[in-house]
Amino acid sequence: MKSVFTASSFVKEIFTAGYPKLLSTIENLLERISRDTDVEGVPPALSFEGNEQMIAAIEIFQTAFLGLCLSRLSDLVNSVFNMSSRGTVPSKEHISRIISRIQEGIEAVQMDVRLTLLVLREISKVLLLLAERAEYQISTGPEARQIIGPATPLQIKNFTLSQHLQEIHARVTSIIARLPTVASDILSPALGTIYGVACDSVTPLFQAMLDHLESCISQIHDQNFGTLSMDAAMDNTPGFYLLLALSPQEQKLYAQGL
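Structure (tokenized):
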């Protein structure tokens, strides 16, 4: 098989891209040989070691197949989250394409548990790459933390990015829910990283809101209402009006950013 791998690029490409079918064909052939030659009192036509050697003979194509899976997904992520276009949020179509490619990669190998787990390890690498690229797209600075007035373009961008990452997290989690438990063990760390970046993209704004709320509440607590009527107390409490003004901003932010 090594000579076939190195001698013919055409055969190499066919067997690499079609490795799941090649593996299934070899395994079915070995099973049929074992079944058809199962005669009492006669040694098996293929021993366990023989079976393992047959599988090992095509392992070179397995390595190439896993590399192909990684490169295809990585290239897609790199094109969607382009480092040269920071500040540009991918479209829903781009995100759907990434999810579909991940799903196709899993479905292509799900007939073999061992191969599925190997592919999931490559997908885990891609998800970590995606999280890294998405984190680079998060906008920071005063405009991203502004809490007075309508949501700014940077805030909307960060919220959109967060939504995209949550969509990837939810869809991939749903896909692996139908696989053995070990599949979740392999992808959970990478999915957790993606969810963390989704939260990080909106954390600056919510932290600014929290700080503002704490300031408003502090001003209210510092007021002496003992000698004032209710109307006079409200008229002389700037923190009260700041607190009221913040709620509409939150509503606008959710309406425009989500």
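The first helix runs from residue 2 to 7. The radius of gyration is 28 Å.
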